[in-house]
Amino acid sequence: MSLEHDGLESDLPEHVWRINLDTPEEAQQNLSFGAADRWWEQTDLTKLILASNKLQSLSEDVQLLPALTMLDVHDNQLTSLPSALGQLENLQKLDVSHNKLRSLPEELLQLPRLRSLLVQHNELSQLPEGLGQLLSLEELDVSNNQLTAIPTSFALLVNLVRLNLACNQLKELPADLSAMKSLRQLDCTKNYLETVPPKLATMASLEQLYLRKNKLRSLPELPSCKLLKELHAGENQIEILNAESLKQLSSLCVLELRDNKIKAVPEEITVLQKLERLDLANNDISRLPYTLGNLPQLKFLALEGNPLRTIRRDLLQKGTQELLKYLRSKIQDDGPGPNEEPPVTAMTLPSQSKVNIHAITTLKLLEYSDKQAAEIPEAVFDAVGANPVATVNFSKNQLKEIPPRLVELKDSVCDVSLGFNKISSISSELCLLQKLTHLDLRNNFLTTLPEEMEALKRLHTINLAYNRFKVFPSVLYHLPALENILLSNNQVGSIDPVQLKGLDKLGTLDLQNNDLLHVPPELGNCENLRSLLLEGNPFRTPRAAVLAKGTAALSG
After folding, report:
1. Residues forming beta bridges with residue 116, ordered by sequence position
2. Helix and strand numbers, DSSP H then E, in the chain
3. I need a labelling partner for 234 at 20 to 30 A (CA). Which of 54, 202, 215, 263 fits?
4. How far apart are CA 419 and CA 442, in angstroms?
5. 3-state class (DSSP) for residue 59
6. Where does the Disease resistance R13L4/SHOC-2-like LRR domain lie (predicted)?
7. How far apart are CA 278 and CA 300, in angstroms?
8. How many CB atoms are located within 10 Å of the residue 206 CB?
């Protein structure tokens, strides 16, 4: 028998706890029930659902329900749990998620049949040291708490299938987790992990591993995880994809590595013959191995936000199948391999650097990046001739100013990348590029933007991360087409929500790691703002918990 109660009450009527003891009212009124109809004598309460009320406490009388197999009190206002829970020896599922618990009672460890324990979204800073005594546990969710460490006794949970540690404050994982031989899903999203213990590689049953939003610098070595189907490691600091690491992941179907710092994709990625989804968006990849086109199961390939030299932006927008077809066609060409120099349809400059004429004529791309050059050679611009150029990439040089001859491309250029230079001010030449839609100025020395930039009416993405802005550039408020403003890792102290509301197409505003002391609640009125990133600011308001809930919560 099960009982569900959702009356939005802060205390539970006593008769709920006594349901197994007291004769029901209808029996007292009518004594002619046959044996088959006397349900209250045959069935003890096994499921009790008290979710989404306003319960502030749970009575010790819960012990009067010894037959309970499931107790669900999620989404209440509980600050503690009764020790009497330990007497519910038949309990198999306990859901106390979305409450205000600061600790779990030791008596909880006396539940021999407990298979599912859900304690996510509470205020736990530690777990009982003896949690490993719950030997029957198959599912444990402790996500969205304030945990800084995992009890070593976790190693005893050999029947655990799903473990969720996401959104805590873990700096390391205990190597003993490797003893969890049944574990199929491990979620460590959004912690502070810099490495993954090598011993974790022995978790032979692991199928899904989530490591997003940590501080990893490399892909973990997982030689024994032969069943691993999904590896999610986006939003880390991974720079190199180790070929050996990839070779060990032969069963992988999903590899998610977006928003890292990966510079190259090794040929060995083609050993992932079962790969269906590959997400490499927002990295520093300039070339792809053409053999990627031969992955037989690949249905989704994300590459946007990379400085790709050999693939046009419009080709990226045509979807995965067109992209794979293009890569396959390049394998058959007699051209060079993907890690060699571009085709020798190039003119040699005095500096022995090359201008890729082929890229200019077929890809509409003018590139002179990663040369550490103090200025762009005249021959680079001379090579353009009458060809229309849509994309300019002068990133990773030593430029101190905007190249004056950029203005020659004003009739066609729409995407300019000048990131990773030493530019300290924006000259008027840039403001004449009125077809500009993408402008990347990250990692420079900028402190202001000129008001003349107001002429860039088509600009919809601007990346100003890692500069020296102390004030939100006011000209941005006057660029109506803006969809993405990326201003992380500056020193911006305030924003004007009223002017921001005028940017009715703005979907992403990244102000992470700035000096904002407060977030104006009026930001909640920016209805199209889907992604508001504010982590790493010295806020007084709102609370971090509100920020974690996203943009919608700010307007609540």
Report:
1. 93, 139
2. 11, 23
3. 202
4. 5
5. coil
6. 214-304
7. 6
8. 26
| Alpha-carbon 472 to chain mean position | 26
CA 414 from centroid of its chain's CA atoms: 29
The pLDDT score that the predictor gives to residue 354 is 59
User: Can you give the pLDDT at residue 526?
Assistant: 79
Q: Buried b / exposed e across 363-386, counting CB within 10 Å, b at 16+?
A: bbbbbbbbbebeebbebbbebbee
Identify which of 368, 431, 426 has the alpha carbon closest to the alpha carbon of residue 398: 368
Give the C-alpha separation, 495 to 503, whole Å: 13
- Sign for the pseudo-dihedral over CA of 454, 458, 464, 465: positive
Q: Which of 103, 60, 57, 93 is nearest to 76 (CA)?
A: 57
Answer yes or no: are the C-beta atoms of 62 and 16 closer than 8 Å: no
Phi-psi map region of 319: left, alpha, beta (phi>0 left; psi -120 to 50 alpha):
left
Segment among 140-144, 218-222, 278-282 with least mean pLDDT: 218-222
The pLDDT score that the predictor gives to residue 177 is 87
- The Cα–Cα gap between 68 and 66 comes to 6
Return the structure tokens found at 435: 């077809």
pLDDT number for residue 523: 78
**In terms of C-beta density within 10 A (0-12 exposed, 13-18 middle, 19 or more buried), how is residue 19 classed?**
middle
For residue 543, give every residue at least 6 positions away whose Cβ sits within 8 Å of its Cβ, in sequence order, or none.
Answer: none
The size of the chain, in residues, is 556
Summarised one tens digit per residue, pLDDT across range 130-168 is 999 999 999 999 999 999 999 989 889 999 999 999 999
Q: Which two tokens stand for residue 333?
A: 């060409």
Global pTM reads: 0.58
| 67 alpha carbon, distance to own chain's centre | 42
The per-residue pLDDT for range 63-122, each reduced to its tens digit, is 999 999 999 999 999 999 999 999 999 999 999 999 999 999 999 999 999 999 999 999
What is the pLDDT at residue 532?
86
Q: Which amino acid is at 210?
A: Y
Cβ proximity of 462 and 476 under 8 Å: yes
What is the pairing mode between strands 139-141 and 116-118? parallel
Element (H, E) at 461: strand 461-463
Strand pairing report for 354-356 and 346-348: antiparallel
φ and ψ at 199, to 5 degrees?
-65, -25
pLDDT at 13: 58
Q: What is the pLDDT of residue 3?
A: 55
Contact 17, 64 (CB under 8 A): yes
CB 451 within 8 A of CB 431: no
Neighbouring C-alpha atoms within 13 Å toward the C-beta of 509: 26
pLDDT tens for each residue of 16-58: 566 555 555 544 444 444 444 444 444 568 899 898 888 999 9
* Rounded Cα gap, residues 205 and 395, in angstroms: 44
Give the whole-angstrom CA distance, residue 414 versus residue 313.
Answer: 11
- Distance, C-alpha 89 to centroid of its chain: 39
User: What DSSP assignment string belongs to 473-542?
Assistant: -GGGGG-TT--EEE--SS------HHHHHT-TT--EEE--SS--SB--GGGGG-TT--EEE-TT---SBS
